Structures are given as C-alpha cells and as structure tokens.
Amino acid sequence: MKQKFLILLMMAFGLVACVLDDESETKWKPKTETWTVIIEPEYVMGYSSWGAYSSIGVQMDAFNEKGERIGRFYSGEIKGFTFEEGYRYKLRIEATTTDPGIMDGPAYDFQLIEVISKEYIGISKEGRREVTMDVQMVLMLTPDPTSSRGFYFLSGKSVDGGETLDMGMQEIYGAKSEMFCKYGWCTDEIHRYICRMRLSITPSDEPVFAKHNYRIRLEELISQREIADDSCAVATSKEEYESKEKALYF
Questions:
Q1: Cβ partners under 8 Å of residue 115, min gap 6
Q2: Tens digits of per-residue pLDDT, 126-169?
Q3: How is 149-170 classified by DSSP, letter by letter?
Q4: CA atoms within 13 A on the CB side of 250
Q5: Residue 19 DSSP SS3
Q6: Cα–Cα 20 to 30 A to 126, which of 48, 146, 185, 229?
Q7: What is the pLDDT of residue 242?
Q8: How confident is the model at residue 72 (pLDDT cuts 50, 70, 90)?
Q9: What are phi and psi of 134, to 5 degrees?
C-alpha cells in the first residue's frame, strides 16, 4: 500500500514539474541588445517610433552608423541621457524588449551606456524668417451629427493680415498649451486666449511635424487676450474636416 502511495506521489510531482518546465519555456523573457545611435542636433515633433507615448511631443531624430534612420526618441526616452539641442551625439545604449502582454506599452526600454561623442553643430538659420502672428486654439467639429469626434489645432494670422498658418497643437517649439487655454479649478471655468507671438520659421529638408518641411520656434510671447470659450469651435464640411486632419496629424 505504501509503495503504491509513493509511486502515485512521485507521478504527481513529475506532472507538476513537467507543467512548470513547459511554463518556463513559454514564459516571456526580456532580451537586451546594445545599439549605437546618432542623435541629430535639432528637434523634430511627432510620435515615438517605439510606442512609448500616445501623444505628440518633442523628439530626437536617430540614425545608425551607416546613416540610416532608425527612428525617433522622445527627449526623455533614453534613461540617463539629456538632449541639448545644437549638438550631434553618438551614443551607446541598451535596448531591452518589454512584455508584449502589457497593453499600450513601449516596445523597448532604453538605457544610456555611454556618450561616445558630443559635437556642436548649431541650429540651422538658413532661409529663416520671422513673423508676428495672433495665434489661437481652434476646435474643428466633425460634420457627422452622430459622432462626437473633433480635433484641436493652432491657427495663426500675421498682424499685417498677409499670412495665415495652421499648425499642430505642439508644433510651436517653446510654446505651451496653457498659453492658449487654462482651466480654473476654483471657478470650474475654461479661459481661452489669443496669443500675439513673434515666431521664427526655418525651412527643413525633411518634415519636422506631419508633412511640414519647416521648424517653428517661439521667439517671444508678446501678449495674451482672453476670448469667449465657444469662439474656438468651427463647423465645416466633411471634405475640409478630413483634409485638415490629414494635413496636420497624418
């Protein structure tokens, strides 16, 4: 009887061990690679190439040693590295895969190993021009009455009335969304503003934001004027809605 019990007990432990072995073989494990990347001296705007964030922000353009673009990093995406615009960096970094079971997570975690070189290149001023504009946030409403979709963008008009410019919400480098819209926690009110800004616009060989081959910087915030909360909403046709959304965000 004791022998049969021992045999059954050993078989049970054997089955558990087999299950644990199978789970350990199929369980996800992180993999780490060492990359050498070249970080270009001027910022770009957009989404991370590695899915780290779901919003548009300031990014660093990255290439490999062969001069091939490998993607874009948010300015804080490589842990231990601080980007200073105007310098070209050569970095050695660790790229560690992340658990694919985590929804909406980044594909990699990045850690700085070494700054191999840091070379001052400067910021391009070729073809640069300055313009003073009144800029405000605009809400483009969908023409579909059954949908609540819509998107925000920035609309600028030069003070002399000779130029208009539509821009993404984060496209003006150095500007903050709070300049155009503030929420009063005590009063539960939204305050919107038209901002008079001195902007510099510099041509770029490649798109900096969406399909825009220019880089916009805030040089000076001259003034702010409060406007009615509902004055920023714009209703339009389906064709104009889709055209503007595609031009600004795709």
A1: 81, 89, 90, 91
A2: 999 999 999 999 999 888 877 777 889 999 999 999 999 999 98
A3: -EEEEEEEEETTSS-EEEE-TT
A4: 8
A5: helix
A6: 48
A7: 87
A8: confident
A9: -95, 120
**Backbone φ, ψ for residue 196 (5° rounding):** -90, 120
Q: Calculate the alpha carbon distances from 85 to 59, 88, 121, 144 in Å.
A: 11, 8, 9, 43
Average pLDDT over every residue of 65-90: 92
Q: What's the chain's length in residues? A: 250
Both tokens of residue 173?
A: 């480098």
CB-side neighbour CA atoms (13 Å) of 148: 0
Are 74 and 54 in contact by the 8 Å Cβ rule? The answer is no
Two structure tokens written together for 225: 């004027």
At residue 129's C-alpha, the angle toward residues 214 and 192, to 5°, is 75
What gap in Å lies between CA 180 and CA 119, rounded to an integer? 36
Which two three-digit tokens encode residue 220?
A: 């000076």
Please name the helix (run of DSSP H) or strand (run of DSSP E) that holds residue 90, with its range, or none: strand 87-97
